[in-house]
Design brief:
heterodimer; A: about 375 residues; alpha+beta; Ubiquitin-like (UB roll); Alpha-Beta Plaits; 3 domains; 5-stranded mixed β-sheet; 4-stranded antiparallel β-sheet; 8 helices; B: about 450 residues; alpha/beta; Rossmann fold; de novo design (two linked rop proteins); 4-stranded parallel β-sheet; 19 helices; about 45% helix
Amino acid sequence: MSENFKVTIDNITVEVAPGTTILEAARKVGGAVAPPTMCYYSKLEGSGGKCRTCLVEVSKGSEKDPRPMPKLVASCRTTVMDGMEVKNITSEKVPDARAGVTEFLLLNHPLDCPVCDQAGECDLQDLGYEHGKEGTRTEFPRRTFAPEDIGPYIQLHMNRCILCYRCVYTAEQLTERREHGVLDRGEHSRISTCIKNSLDNEFIGNVIDVCPVGALTDKTFRFKNRVWFTKPLDAHRNCSNPNCCGEVRLWMRGDEVYRVTARKDEWGEVATASNGKTGWICNECRFDKKDTKDWVIEGPTNINRHSVISQGHYAGTEGTAGKAEKLIDKVIGQEPKYTLDIHSVSEVNKPSVHLDRIPGPAHSNDFK
Amino acid sequence: MKLLLEKAHIEGIRYYDTYRKNGGYSSVEKALKMSPDEIVEEVKKSGLRGRGGAGFPTGMKWSFLAKPEGVPRHLVCNADESEPGTFKDRYLMEFLPHLFIEGMIISSYALGSNTSYIYIRGEYAWIPDILEQAIAEAKEAGWLGKNIKGTGFDCEIYVQRGGGAYICGEETALIESLEGKRGNPRIKPPFPAVQGLWMRPTVVNNVETIAAVGPIITMGGDEYAKLGAGRSTGTKLISACGNLNKPGVYEIDFNLSVEEFIYSDEYCGGIPNGKKLKACIPGGSSVPILPANLLLHESNGNKRLMNYESLSEGGFQTGTMLGSGGFIVLDEDQCVVRHTMSLAHFYNHESCGQCSPCREGTGWMYKILKNIEYGKGKMEDIDLLWDIQRRIEGNTICPLGDAAAWPVAAAIRHFRDEFEWHVLHPEEAQTRNYGLAHYAEPRTIVAAQ
């Protein structure tokens, strides 16, 4: 069994070790061949299979049994066979199924991206841009949940949750005792602590990093800034916690550290640290060390795939696509600039109008 | 020909003494003299197919069971009979518990399972007591426990009550629930035959399948295979309900025609009040609904028979499935839109919420169907429904997604004019039902979408 398996994905052949999943093989090829993932997280054992965005068509089962698989399969949980042929972007069925899954995921999503802290580095935004359709076909009110307080560090927005179960696996595998989980069934399923409880394990902050949407966000960063206005820098410190890798990404604006996150690789997962540990960081590094003096700064982060900070990523309209410069060239050594003065286009909220001086509620007349 | 319900009429058959006097446990006696492999071989020869709905050959399932050295194996009986319209297992467990326990002992012996489980749905609140009493009686008589009848085989059977979730009838969700976890289906592979309960090799079988093992051993696999038609061997319990004169549980021969089953006095006795047959779901709520003209005859004009092959003739364009045998009949007064809506509501309520197409799609379908039923529908909603079900089917972890998509698909495929009538006449649709239209006319095949 030591021999490698040959797998052909979208007509590109790679050799992988037996037991590898189709998704990992596709990531080895890289680029657009790698299916998008919302629930699979290679660093978390048992994750995947739930969101169904990574469905692919297996047009040939293996060298021994060349029959195609009857249904689309979840590439994150299907292991490769020798001689397997997989169709992802070249398949006729996959884009349709993926568009369907995207529609289902967005069906009850509040689409409050303008006020969501995850906007700009949100996997669901990326998925929507790449595989979604314009407009919505649903006319029903979206599902809502009562807000729940899960402690001083982590903000839970259950309305945005897509139930990927990543945070559940994180708590299960990183902390001694899992304090939250999925309650209820069907479309009422929700992430909750059951008995009102705060998540206070020293590694629980990692659920923020694994969350593909804005359901779990950093309370210390909440509403402070938009991610595309902050500048990411790689940094490290000698963390006393033996399980913390100590290598982080600082999100800075000027000299101020706004946010600390784990370093992520090109697939949006925490990267492996230089000391060989998986890049999970402890709560102390994440929430308490918000001063440049605490950190040894290595330099600006290379941004390659995700988020609007990799400019031009969403440039779908003609003419802008060519201008995709790397942000890093623009940002280093200069303050990020607002490219648009909101008051020049907005009727409301003029700087000359002081809301606190208007007696009673404001009316449109007050802004004229 | 009755195999399972042969003794059902005897008074006190629920108790061990009466059951034993009437020839009970003779199949266990016979089985314990055989080797486990011989029993598996008999079951293979019998051609018995899983009675829970999928119709997978039981002998083949048993032979897939991995047998690593030193790892215990388990037999789990799926008594989580939650499919709307299906109540055959309830009848078996309630009135013939010893027949079922007999099958459990033989199957456990054949599979080498020293600890077997019966996972029963929470709503059958009184049946676990019946089963536990039967197990205690069997144990007292020496059919269970340590060193059964001197063969050196130990076996214990435990009854586990579920919490009342439809999804726990899916075998991997059942295993999760049995382990004490949230009833979410597992992602396959690995299959339960390799890693099931507590990661040990496990066989999950329906109640009726296990109950049929006793008669197979008594009469021999070859004899059993002679019954029935083609690859549908033996007999099948059908739980008939809906607009019928005599609803109930019937044991049928696979050569029985659908027409005879509905209209003959021996079985359901026709439709009450002289009404006409409009449609029927022959295998539990998740199989496609068929209009009367397609139900009684195959597309080639032959009479449709109550067996796996004949009912699924022509695929979903002109056929359906035997499924679990929950036979639901709708007469001319029933509204297919309302019926589909209530099924969609059921699947919406019972979706486990693990994978996105089913979690979101079932609720969406229900809301659209509710709009159409209550006169707020639009013409494009019908196409939208078709599109939603198409994208749920086959894209989910477990078959619940398919089960939710098929009834909606079949209703639109065969009864599109009724949906359109609901949209075009929203007010009239609130006061009367659409009625029969062309469905009662024989031999008009509705063009499928």
